[in-house]
Amino acid sequence: MRSSVETRRTASAGIACAALLVALALGCSGRLPGSGSDAHRPKNVLLLVGDTLRSNRLSCYGYPRPTSPNIDRLASRGTLYRRNYSQACWTLPSMVSMMTGVSIVDEIKALPSDAPTLGQALRDAGFETAGFIANGVLGQASGFGRGYDVYVDANGADAVTLSGHFTRWHEERVARTAAGGKAAPFFAWVQFIDPHHPYEPDAAHDVFHEPRLDEERVADRLRAAYDEAAAKSPGRPIPAIEDSIRKASQDSNLYDGEVLAVDDGVGRILAELERSGDLANTLVILCADHGEMLYEHRQQPLIVDMIVEKEGGLPDGVLDLFGRGHRPWYYDDLWNTPLILAGPGMPAGVVEDELTANLDIGATILDALGLPMRAGMEGRSLWGGRDPGRDRVFAYGHQSNAVVEASRKKLVLYPRRFFQLPEEAPAPVMLLDLAADPREDVDLAGGLPAERDRLLGEIESWRARTPKLRPPVISDEQHQRLKKLGYVEGNESPPR
Q1: What are the Cα distances from residue 296, in Å, to 52, 214, 243, 245, 493?
Q2: Domains recognised in the chain with CATH numbers
Q3: Torsion angles phi and psi, residue 143, rounded to 5
Q4: Phi first, then psi: what are they for 292, rounded to 5°?
Q5: 150, exposed or middle or buried, with CB in 10 Å at 0-12, 13-18, 19+?
Q6: Above 80 in pLDDT, residue 22?
Q7: 276 Ramachandran zone, left/alpha/beta (phi>0; psi -120 to 50)
Q8: pLDDT greater than 70 at residue 291
Q9: What is the pLDDT of residue 313?
Q10: Residues near 266 by Cβ (< 8 Å), separated by ≥ 6?
Q11: Which of these, 111, 193, 156, 103, lies nearest to 472 by C-alpha position?
Q12: What pTM, to 2 d.p., does this model score?
């Protein structure tokens, strides 16, 4: 017997197929038929992006700590997607993809000037558009402000400050409307920066001080690698192993505090919308550009060697052998990002296991508003709770490619230089089975060559069929912002 969820998924799949047939019958106009009448459509859209926000550090995704009470309430009145993936392992390509609806298959450090964006599409459709951005690499110098009536480049602002920018804008809008002014619907994008390294929550959010929940597992891995770290740092004494274990736990706790700060900002924004009466007719989307590593898995050898060369050893000792932050990794801690949709047209209190992608966000917004899809957009609408019918998701970033399938098989393809391999050597790959190995500890690439080669072929086919965006020449300001956040390597020169 099917569960009610399974029955609804089957119905959603039928709706999606019917919608496709209608689109074909209309001559492939690109318009996505809505899942309901205009009376059930949202008037406004609010896109909340937690920069570097791990889904598995949110309570509504099963994390035992109370890091996200406001986000949990949002999830309870909407639909939560457990198997959502971003399109890159760092901010710029991920957000270029989210805002254009197309895949990124090459390095890119700003929004191409000829790439149509979601903000432009909605402003052209008559929406009042506003952006409130705390990540400096998405500031005006990056091109992301294109299409916005108001664009607040609040570089480095904490979540409470950023939510204040939104609240003041919204209060002015409400007052203007009450005085008989323009009452256009709005699209607002808010991008928090708080969970990004360095982790520095203020006193109100720095409330987690007990050992990290996976401390035993992380500690065992650090102890096993301690002698290797000491050998790589012969001229510089490394911290004692117990100090490193404490530091790994402290960083994890501080990260949780930053997640709580984002939740606070989300709560303030939602409270403002509820106070004004706008929340009931606003589609709210909460997502992330990517997640974060907190010493769960090893670094690539090149990154370790770069630290040794720059510092004359390993200043953080054994911790320098393990991944912190977001570099060329596609473990689920970093790649499996939160996605919650709440508001008109979305089922409440539902948890979905279909494979979804941040690419689907733009398509969902346009469909919910009854607007046509732009030519070339790859996303699939989730509005109404429909099943997007995805069998795999691809990603590219930091010269690394990845694919994850509905079967829970995952393959990551790295450049040879990350593992200090000669050009004639086979490219390094990692094959994982998330169903059998949810912690992603066992690389199956050597033992399952047929499966490895099949997924490599999927990546090659994806790259071959995906049009490449024209990388823009970045400004000196954008170069400096990228460098400050660690996205530009030391040997890269500023643009000329």
Answers
A1: 16, 9, 17, 12, 32
A2: 41-390 (3.40.720.10)
A3: 90, -5
A4: -160, 145
A5: middle
A6: no
A7: alpha
A8: yes
A9: 96
A10: 48, 70, 71, 74, 159, 163, 286
A11: 111
A12: 0.89
